[in-house]
Amino acid sequence: MKKVFYLNTCDTCRKILSQFDLTDWEHREIKTEPVTKEELAEMHKRTKSYEALFSKKSTQIKARGIDVKSLEEKDFKKLLLDHYTFLKRPVFITDQEIFVGNDKKNVEKLKEFFGVTE
């Protein structure tokens, strides 16, 4: 399995995806085709945390008046299934690994995985 979850309107996602050869990867644009319960369960199985998959930069947090510090794992799960912007992105899933988000450390790991040298 090689799957990447991303948001087409996100410049950061597009920039990261453009660095890699993803021709044999399944592409999932999460706004038009949201993450399923099964896919979220697979992501959770690999990260051991819904919070690790949750984007604390989502515009929906402020719009809904959510106090992120008061959330529990079940709340993160519910929100992740409720609206696509709550998923930290992009998410790359292989048979053995998962790469979540766009922080520098994660992007460096992706570059190592794809064998990209600068």
TrEMBL record:
Gene3D superfamilies: Glutaredoxin. Pfam families: ArsC. InterPro entries: Arsenate_reductase-like (IPR006660), Thioredoxin-like_sf (IPR036249). Belongs to the ArsC family. This is Arsenate reductase-like glutaredoxin family protein. It comes from Chryseobacterium defluvii. The lineage of its organism: Bacteria, Pseudomonadati, Bacteroidota, Flavobacteriia, Flavobacteriales.
